[in-house]
Amino acid sequence: MVDDEWEELGPYVENWDYRTKLRLRSSIDVDVDAVRVATKLTDHTPLAWSFGWRATDTGLLGEPIVVDAADDRVDIEFDVPPDRAGATIVLTRRLVMRRDRMFAGPGEARWAGSILWSDEVTVRLTGQGAAFPTEVIDFQLLGRDPGTSWYLDLPTSPDVPSMGSMILLINSADTALVAAVTRSRRHTDVQKALIDSMEEGVVEEFVRWALGRWKELEDAEPESVGAAGRTLASRVLPDPESWTSPDVDSMALRSAIVDGARRIGFGRSLS
Questions:
Q1: Separation CA 241–CA 13 (nearest Å)
Q2: Predicted TM-score (pTM) above 0.85
Q3: Would you tell me the crossing angle of helices 225-236 and 189-211 to the nearest 10 degrees?
Q4: For 76-123, what is each residue's pLDDT tens digit?
Q5: Longest C-alpha distance within the chain, in Å?
Q6: Fewer beta carbons under 10 A from the terminal one: N or C of the chain?
Q7: Torsion of CA 172, 178, 179, 183, to 10 degrees
Q8: Are 94 and 117 in contact (CB under 8 A)?
Q9: What does each C-alpha distance from 76 to 8, 40, 72 come to in angstroms?
């Protein structure tokens, strides 16, 4: 679902970021009687559809939705929460047996959960789109350091709404970076390297911002910038609270953040 409209699902979700809940719908038409004949389950063994997902990078699994396969059509809707989704998710649909069978012939399904049919669809969530609202400006006119390439403008209060309260500013003087971020596809290797480096730095800045307010963010409103920072930090770092000590090794923290950012699809990929 995009802006309250249903669209066909492609190989990637355009403009998705880690704050966006993914709402999906699936419809399946099936001849239940034909399935029972083909699988020799004409004894009225109950069948069910199981819909689920898993994140390929984090290993997290979504709780499957199970519905009876009693009719020749099934329609299901479900959400993939942003704090559990990874850079890529695999959507699964399965037709399964709901209970064990006391008597089953050779080659026939016997146990509950036996899969009679299945398919999988892989969907990439993170791509070349910016994860933050972005604006190209003249740093010298704005009073920013003119020699720097970008600046992540974050609010001092974590309670303000995330939309409109933080913005990634790109220095117009860095024409190479401007060309990279404004190009929607077919980036050159140099442009890809520029974007990857900026992504890793932006994630690091936002995670450090969140860690510095970690206790305060426990009660952050769901749509606030504080909640967004806590969600990102939790996805990037396995145990964010362990990095909140004021005497933490800064280089070790940076290494952990970059590793986590790359794992969820931001920055360079070494594979």
A1: 31
A2: no
A3: 110
A4: 998 988 767 766 789 999 999 999 988 888 888 889 999 999 999 988
A5: 80
A6: C
A7: -140
A8: yes
A9: 15, 27, 14
